[in-house]
Amino acid sequence: MSTALRATILIPLAALGCLAALIMVHRPTMAGQAGLGFWTLVGVLWLLAGIGLSALSHLRARSPAARRAVGLSVPILFGAFLFFLWEVIVVGAGVPSVLMPAPSAIAGRFMASLPTLREDFIQTFVKSVLSGYVMGCLSGFLVAIIADRIPFLRRGLLPLGNFVSALPVIGIAPIMVMWFGFDWHSKAAVVVVMTFFPMLVNTVAGLAAAGRQERDLMHSYAAGYWTTLVKLRLPVALPFIFNALKINSTLALIGAIVAEFFGTPIVGMGFRISIEVARMALDMVWAEIALAAIAGSAFYGLIALIERAATFWHPSYRT
Amino acid sequence: MTIDTLSLGMRPAPSRKAARLWQGSAVPVLTVILVIVALWYAAAVAMNWQGVSDAFARAGEQRSTSEIFLATLEQERPMLPAPHQILVELKKTVIDTPITSRRSLLFHAWVTLSSTLLGFALGSLLGIVLAVLIVHVKTLERSLMPWIISSQTIPILAIAPIIIVVLGSIGITGLFPKAIISAYLCFFPITISMVKGLTSPDLLQRDLMRTYSASSAQVFWKLRLPASLSYLFAGLKVAIAISLVGAIVGELPTGAQAGLGARLLAGSYYGQTIQIWAALFAAAALASILVAAVGLAERLVNRRMGVRSA
User: Fold this and answer.
1) A212 touches chain B (CB under 8 A)
2) Which of A63, A95, A127 is where one domain is finished?
3) In which domain, by residue range, is A292 found?
4) Which long-range contacts (CB under 8 A, 24 or more apart) does A303-310 make?
5) B229/chain A closest Cα distance in angstroms
6) How far is A60 from chain B (nearest CA, A)?
7) Are residues A45 and A181 in the same domain?
8) Could you report the per-residue pLDDT of B167-187, keeping only the tens digit for each?
9) Whole-prediction pTM value?
10) So what's the ipTM on this one?
């Protein structure tokens, strides 16, 4: 059997089987007391899906569009199957929800508590993360420009910046809470400090990335410092800067959530996570994590999109 | 630090030694540190001023400006402790306290260090195994790799309380749950850099191995693994730093019995700012020792493998 045939037969078959298993496991006679037969079915489905996915990933598509579709569908199918296993095992074996809620329960809780999630999202993401992120990245960028202008400062700041990026900066959270109060200002301050150093180090590295030849060319055009900076060195530094922006997008969210463990008003994603964990309402905690995951990936994806548009000339985007 | 060694041009200077000092990074770094310390003292005076003068006013004492100035640097619970206060606290909790006591900072550092190291070991093992599988099994590369990468856009640390509580409710407490968090955080940079390293041998080198009719195990042990080591160590350095972060954050939701994270939390409950700063300094020292240790291991391995420094 050719790999294409194997993929086209096995994957729909496995998908149908998974659907049947899902319907079966949610029947009241089945939930929590699935027998040996059911687990055999799950095992067979696992085997089918494994062979099918393996065939799909070895598939050699001819057109670039088909290749991209295959490249996208493999991880999506793989992820969907993992979620299927999670659901079936949790529901079928009757795992108590204080240990591990099923994805369907989490989704239900997510939908049921949209207003709370919305408030937490505004408090943590819009207020703390975004404001801190903008301030931290901007100040890191400006200090990098100044440090680049004054070599003495650069040689002094850069080793320190590298040193600080290896430190557990998140530990300053309790101090910031003490200085700026319980509300979002203290979380934004933590985010500022966390995002400052990656931006500084990356921008300085990026500004040094322009080659000698290009600089000489600018010099021969009688371009001054500012012209060279704007027309040559900043564009060359853009991939480095976007790298820092992407690193910082994750760091900022982590910083804001963890800082909320140290004290908040009664709203916010980190606050909700710590309070619901204490009440053993794990489905709410997972809903909150799902929200954080969606926000984090969307934030990252947005920056990646902007990067693509801004650095379209870079070799890694040429096809 | 590689950047400033690169950017140092060969400029002839009148006095070589002085010039080398000026051009190297030692003098600029020291200057920046001195400036930071000076700013720190200024900030400590400015931020504590209000509290000190209020305290004197409450006590009904009239004090001169210079007395207030001195008192801002000697407060018991200052807004911002002066550097020497933190050093005194560090000396008190590190040297003057027996290491078995719960008041000793070394005791708490050891608690954090042990879960950091256990998590680092678990994470490295997981990361390396995943990387080897990803390089050798194409299905895994296509299906798992995108998920590993996109898992990093998720604020993973938010899961820390769940891991602690879930493992706690099935009877696993203490070191292990924190180590799991560390391991979960630090497997990623190791997997990514290891995959990069294992795929770094180019076509020419792989073809050479094929002309020797080397098996894929031989290619792995004799070509891929040695080629991946420098990438692996770069990943390990990042990993051990975030492993420490994971251990510290893992100590927060348990109500914090021991460890540097517990010191941070207890300090923030009781307003013991000096204690918080001392714990922060200890964490910073621990992080730099760990990264330096990985660097040392890298140098030893490189010497053993006969790598010449580039």
Assistant:
1) no
2) A95
3) 111-317
4) A303/A242, A303/A245, A303/A246, A303/A249, A304/A246, A306/A242, A307/A238, A307/A239, A307/A242, A307/A245, A307/A246, A310/A238, A310/A242
5) 21
6) 13
7) no
8) 877 777 778 888 888 888 888
9) 0.82
10) 0.77
